[in-house]
Amino acid sequence: MNSPLPLLRLRGLAKGYAASPVFGSVDLDVAAGEFVAIVGESGVGKSTLLNCIAGLDNIDSGTVHIDGAAMSALPESEQALLRRRLLGFVFQAFHVLPYLSVARNVALPLLLLGRDEPGRVEQLLGAVGLQGLGPRMPQTLSGGELQRVAIARAMVHSPKLILADEPTGNLDPKTAQRVLETFREQVHIAAAACVLVTHSPAAAAHADRVLVLDANGLRPRV
Ligand SMILES: Nc1ncnc2c1ncn2[C@@H]1O[C@H](COP(=O)(O)OP(=O)(O)O)[C@@H](O)[C@H]1O
Ligand SMILES: [Mg+2]
User: Fold this and answer.
1) pTM
2) Which of 48, 112, 171, 195 gives 176 a disulfide partner, CB atoms 3.0 to 4.6 angstroms apart?
3) Measured between alpha carbons, how far is 70 from 5 in angstroms, rounded to an integer?
């Protein structure tokens, strides 16, 4: 959808659990072609923020616009369709499905969109250094390999917006570098946007812009 709005716009986003606030008022614009990193202490709400953007958790107030659509105002079922079409989410806990092979896990977003793209799954597995592992079952993989399955799955359908939660936390520096370059390529070549949550300065260094999350909201890192 063409729209004067940036690919992602957050205004006054606030979220708490029971009586305890997590973050107060988050404003953020991420343009198409922009790679933003969000850093912050453990427990400050980085994962919660990504979940709120994706509509996987409820917000208390504020708005989320994705590619011009008022995500936060949509009913649950339409949020799910928008997520499927526009988003690639790398979960901190991977959420690789244990009863599907690596290749079928990675192919899942294409299947859900009814897209048949021969060679695409192998291409993504190659990009994250897992070439040839398609037939393997997840329980035979290491933590770092599982994390890369999750990354390949998040990118296979060329999403407009990549939300990645500590996506290199289980990777060695060389593999992490390779994965972050794959994100950058998707962002810059396909004019997607990426919000990367990390506590790794090395990972944040790949971003165009680094922001810090604390209880008051997001601010530029100085
Ligand atoms: N489902 C939940 N119920 C209650 N508290 C939660 C829930 N999820 C996260 N929290 C709390 O919200 C805060 C932010 O958590 P999280 O977003 O996971 O932080 P981060 O990703 O920055 O480490 C933490 O204090 C955490 O304990
Ligand atoms: Mg987290």
Assistant:
1) 0.95
2) 171
3) 11
